[in-house]
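Regression report. Comparing outputs from two consecutive submissions.

Submission 1:
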Amino acid sequence: MSRTLPSPTRHGRAAIIGASIAGLLAARILAEHFDEVVLLERDPLPEGAAPRKGTPQAVQPHGLLARGRQVLDGLFPGFSEALVAQGALYGDAGGEVAVDANGQRLARATLGVDALACSRLAIEAEIRRRVRALPNVRVLDGVDVIAPVHEDARVTGLRWQPRDADSLAGAEPQTLAAALVVDCSGRASRSPAWLREWGYAAPAEERVQVGIAYTSAYFRRAPGQPPLACVIGAATPALPRPSILIAQEPDAQGRERWVAGVGGYTGDHVATTREAMAERARQINHPEIAALAEHAEMIGEPMRYGFPHSQRRRYERLRRFPAGYLVMGDALASFNPIYGQGMTVAACEALALRDALARGPDSLQGLARRFFRAAARVVDAPWQIAVGGDLALPVVPGPRPFPVKLVNAYLGRLQRAAVHDPVLAGAFLKVVQMLAPPKSLMAPRLMWRVWRGRHRPGAAVAQTAAA
């Protein structure tokens, strides 16, 4: 059931650009504080778990991290149960998940926290269904947002028009007044350009060029094969070839599925054939994907997805910013997808928005400064994980200050020790699942275990093999 909205609400109308997962979650929070929330989306939105043009990545492998599941269950009570009823797998975020590094599997560790294995399409469809059911949320899909309306140092609404001249009110531009406009339009957000047009500085932007691409495919899943919900293949300096295998809910024909992906950086890409997927899986010692690609029934055809760079826009550092305007989701920060952080970061940003609005009747005063600072704290840890992990790979260009080199060297030793140490493996998985910050891996008790693992019998042989 959807959460009961507080009444009366304190503001008039909020408008959101983009019905992405970030946009839907923003609507969920704003519905607590506004009489009306209007979502404007370029694509016609499907009723169920179906792809749409604006999110070509949605059919690719996606992971909802354990922290993201916790937040979504809080925002939408019964969320996990609804997906399990659709065939999603529900189990321990450590015990049902295996991690490979340097062609070796880390020790299994139970975390005591549940996670979901299902498709991005199913997750987004369930969020969309819950949000559309809110009585004060209205969705306008199949429309183009021309630009927000800016006057007297604040945004007062936005201008939009239908994409189809025969739909809605015709092709004439419309103006929608709003006390708050939130840009959730993704990596291609036009907010930096709009800010410059209005006389503000655009945010500084950080980029890491990764040039990653991965080839993925769906396969029929037989009961108990393999006996895991997810297998993550980490990219390492010695083996910069990530992989992923995740169980999925049944498709429309009732077929239980796996989605598998194998990737590489800067031109080391896999051809879109099952033979190429099998060959790459054998090269990286991923037996589950190799077996599926060689023998399992394939559902559909192999797919390719490329991702040129991670990017982060530093809105929290701007000295001037228009009132009545915010930016969220991938428009703030967009990460290398191999880390599976995007949906969870969007969920945590929604909580930051809720906290920023929790100031009573004057909650819109100074909202941008409060939100951007809180959102920056949300982004800091996953950005550190993604950028630090990418810069550990010699094939990724970019500056590597000494502290980054030192941390990456330590993490490499931790991964090697975690092959035999379930405590280290569990600590590493907690960081991967965004249940603990990266600095938790520097705890003295863990550093001791890393040192001890490095000097255990046979460790030198394992390190040489991974080099």
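Submission 2:
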Amino acid sequence: MEKKKQNNTVVTRFAPSPTGNLHVGSARTALFSFLYARGCGGKFILRIEDTDKERSKKEFEESILASMEWLGFSYDEMYRQSERTEIYKKYLQKLIDSGSAYISKEEVKQEGDRSEVIRFKNPNKTVTFADEIRGEVTFDTTELGDFVIAKDVKNPLYHFVVVVDDLEMGVTHVIRGEDHISNTPRQILIQEAIGAPRPTYAHIPLTLAADRSKLSKRHGAVSVEEYKKMGYLPEALVNFLALLGWNPGNDKEIFSIDELIKEFSLKKMQKGGAMFNFDKLDWVNKQHIARLDTEELFAKIKERLSEEILSLPQYSDERLKTILSVITERISKFADVENMAKEGELSYFFEQPTYEADKLLWKKNPDPLVAKQHLDKVVEFLGSIDADDFTQENVKKAIWDYAGEEGRGDVLWPTRFALCGRDRSPDPLALAEIFGKEETIKRLNFAARSLEDIS
């Protein structure tokens, strides 16, 4: 059924309404339309459906455009339905003149007045269309009656303008959510009445929450803008959305957008609803974070640090760069950096930590004098290492035998706590390399003096 046309003959479109920010479900629809067009060497059109004058807002349009740009969905043409009124008037008049539509005077509810609307004259026929995902679909249009296609010649409604736009813009493939299946028979009837060719339809499964209901705000963030603020990478969100209802037919899960363009096929779309799994999104994002180069990673982490962290006495860009791997091990999105800072997991990298001295004591041997002796001995061993060779490996060589003789917990616990002041932290040997010889010894001596007070 699926035929990938070449030489720009494939034209797809994404047609959001500027009545809200770009929903992730809508972004997924845009993605599939974009991937299909690009994979066929065709054209991808962005069409702003702003005929609802009361609900359409310029700020929402701007937000949609910004989200599309952030996601990397470049489009070849852009239109606004609000700027195409004259085109719609021409086609409305054509339908009226041919007898396929008529002006109907109808009573306005609650007012008792009568107003005119334009109704499509339903031929009451059975409509069958081929869907790239669902196969053959048949509707009896009799139950639709003569449906309204415009409030008047200056105010056409959704079903009518969609058909006119698809005709005028040369749309060959309509890729949209399955909730639009019931709209298709009306639109086919209008197509036939104005002599428009029937596009190829592909109705993709809806994005569902974990409880299999439609994804909404009660399940968490729903707009692309919110995911950007939470620190997800655009390439990761695109990757994740592509896997909702589509798979490449193998075990590969991490894709760049160029790889998706090459791999995407409507034949590999599933029919059932696609579950939006936040844990999976976090995993995909973490894989894409791992692909960033050092400078990109540094910039994205630094922009999430508060002025409070950046103004700590030992903060430097160089120090931050040394702990990038420590941070990335603990995050799945960049907002997690902010959470780490709030939980006190970052400040000790940039200032001498404060703590109660008894926290330095190893639980199996809580003797302050013994703990101090171990710290003093560690300082002695570390003092023999040249500052330029103060690596994790050399630190380990210097103290490992001693720690083995005295008890690793007895030696390494106070050493680690002296360096970070926290119950959980990276390996103390790694911390020593991060801080360097001078700062490491300074923190160990500070801890030893603290133990004198409770001896």
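Expected: both submissions complete independently.
Actual: both completed, but the second showed a warning that disappeared on reload.
Relevant detail on submission 2: The first helix runs from residue 24 to 39.
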